[in-house]
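Annex B, item 7. Sequence and structure tokens for protein A, then protein B.
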Amino acid sequence: MDWNSRRITAILENALLEDRATSDATSYACIDPNRRAAATILAKEDCILAGIGCVGRILDVYAMLDGAVTSHYEVTTHPEIFDGVRLHKGQSVAVIRHNARVVLSCERVILNFLQRMSGIATITRKFVEAVHGTKTRILDTRKTAPGLRVIDKYAVRCGGGQNHRLDLSDGVLIKNNHIALAGGVVPAVERALHNRRGAQPVEVEVRTLEELEQVLANGGEAVLLDNMSPETVAKAVEFCSRLERRIPLECSGGISLENVRSYAETGVDFISVGLLTHSPRAVDMSMRVVPA
């Protein structure tokens, strides 16, 4: 993750602006402007870490927004602390040494990013571990928080998952609404094959084995098996194994930690899981601040 990129900088800047971090009334009223502080970020539960690079970068962006020369800061971490590592309850994530007002003004924004991203990484790792030993790979979806997609999808990678399409330009995926407006599966696939950009594979969502056969008979190059039972997915995998050409198979819909192993054991290539990013539980972290 390039935390210095314009795209990421804009996300962090918007978060600080939303919180009016440079107009922190309480810290201005209570804290000596020359006071320095040491702030320790703590994991309050076991989790997979994601977003450690945001800490120093948020302080940098705050300085840009503040428009004043701020005192020197340090962010120190243990060499074994990095994105993707498993943290244990009570473990120190990082220590910030900086102007006390700045630390307090940035505290919530820093924790919001770390807690959300680590929450996504943690649930992703649980799904990845649940399918361990199979050939199936866990994918995310576009069901991300508005404006935070690049952040959310990076957190999925920290958890060991893989990214599906980053955005609508990133591939052809024909779904039910496309089929309805195109006049059916056949014209939708034909038009996609003719109009696609470069070598983008044409993937089609199907809900029955009959639709699967129809898609493959008309040139579909990848298939999303939507809301099928593991038994039906297994039949689809077996059917495609007899074809002369390789057809990547993905399944989605109703996938949970309780049933993901059953789907993976069918031999399906990918399982996409919306809940990784559409409703992750933020992990519990805190910031303990003392005078420095």
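Protein B:
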Amino acid sequence: MSTAAVILGTLLATATVAGADARAGDYAALQPIGFSPDGNVFAFEEYGVQDGSGFPYSTIYVLDTRNDTFLPGAPVRAVIEKDGGALHEARREAHHRAAPLIDAYRLSDAPGILAAYNPVTEGSSAAHTLIYDAFPADEPFRKTYKLKLEEKSFEPQGVCSSFLKEVKGFRLTMTEKAGKPATDVLHEDARIPEAAAARRVIASVAS
């Protein structure tokens, strides 16, 4: 199982689908696009309707899974800045702009599978854990994985210290790997960049 697949599972675990009539406080929708044949490149789309303006938008992220960086030319963004703009217009425009990258790395050839999905609208599941099988198969052949997300608190820095008492980061650990106990730390925040914390302040005030 690739790191990108784990990252995708984590991203989708924090999102819920937002339609064209999205309201303030709704989450953006996430749609996987696919992997390159060697698994070194992965792309997904985030789309929804902006709070305040009501403009539909779509952003396509194309990632180098080996070093967790965007490829040159990514992210690709489209916003329909007009009254009555449709979400499908933004999505179509973003895909048109991202087509050279998607085609160059043959990302549509390997869309992968959605192995785990824990939307915020689902009230019956634990918010900070995911248990899933890496691929669809009969029970004797399944390989089960388990992820645990732990929040971390940081003291705000710079301009954010005037608005926030603390900012939240996280540690993501794989506690079960192919059916066996594990303690693999997949990601752990050492700090929260000031720009990211500032965006959270702006989002909080806007809502």
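Comment on protein B: The radius of gyration is 18 Å.
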